[in-house]
Amino acid sequence: MNPQTILVYDGTFDGFLCCVFTVYDQKITDPIIRKRSQTNNQLFTITEDIITKKQQAIRVWNGFKKKTTSNEQRGFFKAFLSEIKGVENTLLNYMKSIFIKTSRNAIDFSNKDILKISQVARMVEREKHRMEAFVRFQLIKDSLYVSTVAPDFNVLPLIIHHFKDRYADQKWLIFDTTRKYGIYYDLNSVEIVTFDNVSEIDPKTIKGHYCNQEIDFQKLWTTYYNNVNIKARKNTKLHVQHLPKRYWKYLTEKM
Amino acid sequence: MKSLERSKIKFNAQQPNMLFDRIREKLSILADAAKYDVSCASSGGKRANTNKGLGNNTGMGICHSYTEDGRCVSLLKILLTNHCIYDCAYCVTRKSNDIKRAAFKIQEVVDLTINFYRRNYIEGLFLSSGIFKNADYTMERLINVAKKLRLEENFNGYIHLKSIPGTSDELMREAGLYADRLSVNIEIPTVSGLKLLAPDKKHEDFIKPMEKVKNEIIQYNTERKIIKSTPRYAPAGQSTQMIIGATGESDRDIMYSATYYYKKFNMRRVYYSGYVPVLTDNRLPSLGTEVPMLRENRLYQTDWLLRFYGFSVNEILNDTHKNLDLDIDPKLSWALRNLNLFPIDINTANKLMLARVPGIGMQSVYKILEARKFRNLDWSHLKAIGIALNRAQYFITCNSKDFHKKELSASSLKNILLKNSNSKYTKHFNQQLSLFS
Ligand code: SF4
Question: Tens of pLDDT along B279-337?
Fold first, then answer.
């Protein structure tokens, strides 16, 4: 049995594309691609550390772009952001089948990798929409609107555009408490931010910095929410199906 | 931040708590009175965020929350006031009803909208009102709220204004310049029902603003072709709502009315709202009568089939079939009445016919059309595509010798389907509603 090659990368999208580059460059068959942060406990393997090189990533991506529609490209990126274990290998197989393809024409929905990618992409897309819906900004001093979230997938990169476009005239920060980074808009552009001390962004600290009307508006919103309910139509099953309980912790009206 | 400063004065002036409490009370009264309007759509009619203002409308409505009855909360939906000079039997706001009355000031609605929007609670505002003094007087105030939001706050979020029946053409024209959507609720599907329940309202009063909005939209579309800068008019079009189960109308009456409004006034949406008994009145179902939610759901399914699946209304409802089945959805019901058209071959059937197979939704239709370019599809492909085989299998053949050869009668097929998707259907009776299974 030939030892299997494990390609280890830094977890970034560019890093992953460099793995694909290496697979083609060194003609590696059946590699496993995984993030550096995941520990390795497999025997009989060769581990190769992949260094992220922008140039290589761009070459791979440009090749992919030539043979796919922008929709498929977005789907590919979304599937990557799912961070589902082993998704890199499905993406690699998918890319291989795309590179074999001769033209840009139709998607073969009966190919199982393609189907899998489109399913995962749809899950990520759904989480993206949930974040666009469930982010609740709280206004703190210095006119900054802050929100903390803990999405199932790494979707902040996907929601930047939406929030930047919608809230163009207010400063805002959306922080992912699971992945410990945030996106911050300063009225000009959006930047990725991290905190040395995560307690700076915990609910208590945020509360301590509320601007003086914040609580009033939260109460008004809750009042509104409670008054639009029609008791005669109560349907708890449907309610939690649309609004799964794991999201309640950041919904003002559910606190 | 202009709006924040101003609202600070409003809520934190001299006696902050008193003012806040008063606003809160008004909000609870005027949200409560508006909630029977089921339209929550904030979709359609894109509006870009120009000049770095506040908000946009991407054309895809977002539900920011859900009520405990499972309905989407997307807009701040309130009445400007629940004072009303009319006495429509089906309405909580009617003159003779003994309830607390309240009225917002225009600026209060503006401040609430802006502050809710900035916190990502809502997509925009849906403003309606009881009729005080007369139609124009009321409509003018609704328009003023929208105008302030657009011009003073540079607000590009969604605005839906209710057109007050009987409003003049000039005001309807102005309303469309600021609102994304305009609607008049026809409420009672038949003219005779309207006479019975809202005797002082005239059918023409509902029709007039609809007609005006339709004509303005047509005019806008032609003018824009010549002059790019023509001001936009109600980009999300108009909608209406009908109350279901308040009078004795049949599903056929309802859907024929709906079809009429779709065609005649280019409605974007018709909403169906199961009547919630709120008043004692011998013309209406008594208090405690169950809200006809399942029936409402079947009507939405029918509406969907008419708009997206290429069905015409008389295929689903007609003289021999006046009401929709409650135990099965309208598409299955249609298929069972037309078994002679089945089974169809998945690999050759056209798009319209694929869409008519129970268990195959529009998304699956598209995927089948794509996938069959590459190979003849068999059961495993169809499963992977995600069609509901437990239902579809009785209506299709594919690249496999394995298929249902037995001729089944409509009623025995219905029984089988009800049985093997039992849970799904009993769920409906537990008020678990979904658009299509
Ligand atoms: S006019 Fe409108 S608000 Fe007034 S009673 Fe009739 S339906 Fe209700």
Answer: 778 788 877 788 888 888 899 999 999 999 999 999 999 999 999 999 899 999 999 99
Three-class SS state of B160: strand
Query: Using alpha carbons only, what angle is made at residue A181 by residues A178 and A183, rounded to the nearest 5 degrees?
Result: 125
8 Å CB contact between B294 and B434: no
Say whether B53 and A169 touch across the interface (CB within 8 A).
Answer: yes
Protein residue with least CA distance to atom 1, ligand 1: B86
b/e B309-323 (16+ beta carbons within 10 angstroms → b): bebebebbbeeebee
> DSSP letter string over A164-179?
HHHTTTSEEEEEETTT
Give the model confidence (pLDDT) of A123-173 as tens digits: 999 999 999 999 999 999 989 999 999 999 999 999 999 999 999 999 999
How far apart, in whole angstroms, are the C-alpha atoms of residue B211 and residue B251?
25
Of the candidates B304, B305, B251, the one whose C-alpha atom is nearest the C-alpha of residue B274 is: B251
Tens-digit pLDDT profile for residues B202-261: 888 888 888 888 888 888 888 888 887 788 888 888 888 888 888 888 999 999 989 988
Token pair 């207010």 is at which residue?
Answer: A170
Nearest by CB to residue A234, choosing from B68, B76, B377, is B68
Q: Write down the pTM of the prediction.
A: 0.82
A173: which strand partners?
A: A146, A184
Q: Report CB contact under 8 Å: B65, A251.
A: yes
Locate the ligand 1 atom nearest the alpha carbon of residue B91 and give its number: 8
Chain centre distance of CA A170: 23
Question: A133, B62: Cβ pair inside 8 Å?
Answer: yes
8 A C-beta contact, residue A46 and residue A4: yes
What the block records as the tokens of A24 is 């083609």
